[in-house]
Write a structure and sequence with these properties.
Blueprint: H1 2-7, H2 12-38, H3 53-68, H4 74-98, E1 113-114, E2 118-119, H5 120-147, H6 150-188, H7 194-203, H8 205-210, H9 212-246, H10 252-263, H11 266-269, E3 275-276, E4 279-280, H12 281-298, H13 303-311, H14 334-349, H15 354-362, H16 375-418
Antiparallel strand pairs: 1-2, 3-4
Helix pairs in contact: 2-3, 2-6, 3-4, 3-5, 4-5, 6-9, 10-13, 12-13, 12-16, 13-15, 13-16, 14-15, 15-16
The structure holds fe (ii) ion (FE2) (2 copies).
Length: about 425
């Protein structure tokens, strides 16, 4: 009988009738399953009418496979049925995602699923279903159809076909409308009021009930959209900060290039010979210069002048604790006098700009009364005071420690002597 139905071209109306019957049966199965799981009546499928064509397509494949593999043992045969239905389910899921941009079902939370489109327990269900279909259902349906008058079948088939095409066209229009609204929802989500969002959601209530995973899909899409927008926003801020910070970053090679000519000058190198705070003047001016360079670069000031001016701020070639310089009488106070001496030395060996001169001249402010003229001069003055006090404290602690260990050594020595 199956043979007749499949190969007799004149029986096209029987095929259509079978298609209608199995689409309707599929709808019954889906409605039952969905109404039970969602605890309310759900009109399943994307068509308005009570038909789910995918079931009819599935059964057509099963009938064909049953015919092709009828000589095979029952077990491999039903495995082929299961595989075929799983492949069909996967392809329909794939097509609806890729072409219609809709995820109609999602097994991604089920065990042993493939891309959320198929999963093991549904595939087992399809296999059992296909087996009972070819053994029990299809023969009975076929027998009853063949008993009916051919004219009735023809009328029913044509009626179904007309109805089905109309339903299909309207459903496609509805899906297109739905996709448009969804796209609108994704892009305008932030601008829409809650009422407008509700209205859009309500307008495709049926589709959302029919495909509950669709809600999850829409929510995910909206969440992703929000995430993308937030990330884009954060990224733009981050880029601005990076761009902003890039101009403020200190670079040792840049610093060295700025001060190279001074640092290599033989007169300047003499500063290594004079003790200052805790090491040499040379080490101290380098510390002040680099710190000033960093601060000025960060504040987007003239960091080059700051670095050079700071390097020359203590350019005096004598030991200020024990000097015997003709130009600097002993009674004169080094703290007030040395900026002018440093400036004169610097001018003698290097060409200075106005900021550099101001830096050197005013670095002892407020000890020297006239305040600095430039921000860079204030920064160098501050850096100098900060680092000098640090160097003094370091030196003081070092000496105290040395003194203590010297005392200890004397005490130990005395103790040994008395013993
Ligand atoms: Fe100084
Ligand atoms: Fe200094």
């Amino acid at each position: 009988m199956e043979h007749t139905i499949i190969y007799d071209g004149t029986k096209i109306f029987y095929y259509i009738a079978l298609f209608a019957i199995y689409s309707f049966a599929g709808w019954i199965i889906e409605v039952t399953y969905r109404s039970i799981t969602q605890r309310k009546f759900v009109n399943a499928g994307f068509l308005y009418g009570p038909f789910i064509p995918i079931y009819a397509i599935g059964t057509a494949f099963i009938i064909l496979l049953q015919y092709l593999f009828q000589s095979w043992h029952f077990v491999p045969r039903i495995i082929i049925f299961g595989l075929a239905l799983t492949i069909i389910e996967y392809l329909v899921g794939y097509i609806s995602e890729k072409i219609f941009k809709l995820t109609l079902w999602d097994y991604s939370e089920s065990k042993f699923n493939l891309h959320g489109r198929v999963c093991l327990h549904f595939s087992i269900f399809w296999t059992l279903f296909a087996s009972s279909f070819v053994i029990f259902i299809h023969p009975v349906v076929l027998l009853n159809i063949l008993r009916l008058d051919a004219l009735y079948i023809k009328i029913a088939a044509i009626t179904f076909l007309i109805y089905y095409l109309i339903d299909y066209v309207f459903s496609l229009i509805f899906i297109a409308e739905f996709q448009k609204k969804i796209a609108y929802l994704y892009t305008e989500y932030f601008k829409l009021s809650n009422v407008e969002i509700e209205r859009i959601f309500d307008s495709f209530q049926r589709l959302r009930n029919a495909f509950p995973d669709l809600n999850k899909y829409i929510n995910n899409k909206i969440n992703n959209n929000i995430k993308i927008r937030i990330n884009t926003f954060l990224k733009s801020i981050q880029d601005k900060v990076i761009l902003e910070m890039d101009g403020r970053k200190p670079f040792e090679h840049e610093y060295y290039e700025t001060i190279k000519d001074i640092d290599e000058h033989e007169e300047f190198l003499k500063l290594k010979e004079y003790f200052h705070h805790n090491s040499s003047i040379y080490a101290h001016v380098h510390e002040v210069s680099y710190l000033s360079y960093r601060i000025c670069k960060f504040l987007k000031l003239d960091y080059r002048s700051a670095a050079r001016g700071a390097l020359l701020h203590d350019f005096f070639l004598y030991d200020w604790r024990n000097h015997d310089i003709p130009d600097l009488p002993r009674e004169k106070f080094h703290g007030i006098e040395h900026p002018a001496i440093a400036l004169a030395n610097a001018q003698k060996h290097f060409s200075l700009n106005e900021i550099e001169e101001d830096i050197i001249k005013k670095h002892m402010w407020p000890l020297t009364i006239v305040p600095p003229k430039y921000k860079e001069s204030f920064i160098v003055s501050f850096s100098d005071k900060y680092l000098s006090s640090k160097e003094f404290i370091g030196e003081f602690n070092k000496r105290r420690k040395n003194k203590r260990s010297a005392h200890k050594a004397i005490r130990r020595h005395k103790k040994l002597g008395t013993n």
